[in-house]
Specification:
Blueprint (H helix, E strand, L loop, with lengths): L9 H8 L3 H8 L7 H14 L5 H8 L4 E6 L3 H4 L3 H16 L3 E6 L3 H12 L5 E5 L7 H8 L3 E4 L12 E5 L1 H14 L5 E5 L5 H13 L8 E3 L4 H14 L5 E4 L2 H13 L9 E6 L2 H4 L7 E4 L2 H17 L14 E4 L2 E3 L5
Parallel strand pairs: 1-2, 1-3, 3-4, 4-5, 5-11, 6-7, 6-8, 8-9, 9-10
Antiparallel strand pairs: 10-12
Helix pairs in contact: 1-2, 1-3, 2-3, 6-14, 7-8, 9-10, 11-12
Length: about 350
Amino acid sequence: MTETVQRPTLEAVAARAGVSRATVSRVVNGSDGVREPLAERVRQAVEELGYVPNQAARSLVTRRHDAVAVIVAEPETRVFADPFFARQLRGISKELTAHDNQLVLLLTEDRDDHARVGRYLAGGHVDGALVFSLHIDDPLPELIQRAGLPTVFGGRPYFNGGRGGVSYVDSDNRGGARDAVRHLLGLGRRHVAHITGALDQTSAVDRHDGYRDVMAGADPGLVAQGDFTPASGERAMRELLGRHPGLDAVFAANDLMAAGALRVLREHGRRVPDDVAVVGFDDMPPIAEQTEPPLTTVRQDIEEMGRLMARLLLRDLDGTGTPEGTAGARPAGLILPTTLIRRSSA
């Protein structure tokens, strides 16, 4: 019969270090009041014995769970098919791991999922929440507010108009869209179409507004709505060609839709960029560099957005407030710059 291996206890660490159990508890839980020589003896004993603190007991002392809920307001089929989410989650995960926090991933697809997430958050299992890909009719902000959890949003929040009081990290979606359309006009294109993202999300609204800033007075028929998926890019491109066969440029609100548009243009015998120039948004290498031709696109640092979201939340939880690179009180929203990356499609 296999012999059960006993886990080292707090008492065993105290005996090895020659200190009291209370002293070990204070050191393990990061409390003040222990002289450095004693604290070092405790840390050495912890390492020698391989002691792992009991998280439940530790939570009673610190009132922290060292766990953060990451809530993506999309169904799992969308999350695992779109590399945008993988990159943002990677940035979040790196920052949380560096601070010894666990990531608890929660996805929402329907109202039952929202109720489940609300119950989980209210149950006190996590210290805070990171939320992205919100839609305008999403009940998540209200559920999170009821739970009283510190929260950072990915993307400009729709429910307060981006004003103070809500922490968020976003890219300069509107400015990036303006750069994309100006680039197309600079190539001599005059009939510039736009494939929007889902217009119940602020990122899509901001990119559409950026297009309209430059193309004020353009025919509304040059705009077709997508939903950030490749299939919607294909559908929108067919719609645009049917309405405006003479269009000579397309700005798609993300790379996935741009890739779908490129497929339809090939099917219709349109040469890119000779006949139609195409620009996307995101600059995700698995897509932008492997389309035919390689895609000119607006780069946003998706992984950095995730990392900053996690950093802002952890600083809120630690009470340290202001992130690196900012002065004074922390702003409610951080807006990261975008860059136009020129490749062969435009």
